[in-house]
Design brief:
Elements lengths: L12 H10 L11 H14 L6 E5 L5 H8 L6 E6 L2 H10 L6 E5 L8 H9 L3 E4 L8 H15 L6 E8 L14 E2 L1 H9 L5 E4 L7 E7 L3
Parallel strand pairs: 1-2, 1-4, 2-3, 4-5, 5-6
Antiparallel strand pairs: 5-8, 7-8
Length: 219
């Protein structure tokens, strides 16, 4: 079920077109570079309490976050790669087959409004992470998605929500980021603080080009 605007339904289209042209590869994830991807992943890893936790990587692509956690020796409990593009989900399944405690779940977190609740209920998810996967949505649509994620995770003891986005405060705000959008960093931080005082914001890792918000439920 998708009650959002018609434009929201097309947020996966840039990825589908990239998969059509490039196959299910790193290039089809629309990251600027592997270094840019790792930089964002490292901020997420440093922000979250991951030890023993069940992590849902929303819009996981090829499951690269799991690979990075392994490289850094993170002892997470279980990793769920949640992906809405069929070809990427299949490629992630093959790639992560030999990685312990990794499961691929096919799901569209925009179209399926019950997805977050079902991930908590059926898989015991304790952390929702979004890395790059919100970029093709508008800020308003992103807030609707994050509202659903927060509603699902805030009832989990120690539940966490972490997400990154292109910031409007960096030195590179004039560059063309299409099909990605820049968000109002102050507005996204205010959105988080309206829901919990347990919030951190980082914009230092890429000269303000990117921002990461971490939130934790009380208790």
């Amino acid at each position: 079920m998708n009650s959002g605007s018609p434009g929201e339904a097309g947020y996966l289209q840039p990825y589908r077109e990239a998969v059509r042209d490039l196959g299910a590869s790193f290039g089809s994830l629309l990251w600027k570079s592997p270094d840019a991807q790792r930089k964002r992943f490292d901020v997420i890893i440093d922000a979250c309490d991951l030890r023993g936790r069940v992590v849902a990587d929303m819009g996981a692509g090829l499951g690269d976050l799991a690979v990075r956690m392994h490289q850094r020796g993170v002892e997470y409990g279980r990793y769920l790669a949640v992906e809405g593009v069929d070809e990427l989900a299949e490629a992630a399944r093959e790639r992560l087959a030999a990685v312990p405690e990794c499961v691929v779940v096919e799901g569209d977190f925009v179209a399926d409004e019950r997805l977050f609740a079902s991930l908590v209920r059926d898989h015991g998810v304790e952390i929702f992470a979004f890395s790059g996967s919100l970029n093709t949505l508008t800020q308003r649509a992103t807030e609707r998605v994050l509202d659903r994620a927060w509603s699902a995770i805030r009832g989990v003891r120690g539940g966490q929500l972490v997400f990154n986005f292109l910031s409007d405060r960096g030195a590179r705000t004039g560059e063309n980021t299409g099909p990605a959008h820049r968000f109002d960093t102050a507005g996204m931080t205010a959105w988080a603080l309206e829901r919990t005082p347990l919030v951190s914001l980082r914009t230092d890792y890429w000269q303000g080009h990117d921002a990461t918000v971490w939130m934790r439920a009380s208790g």
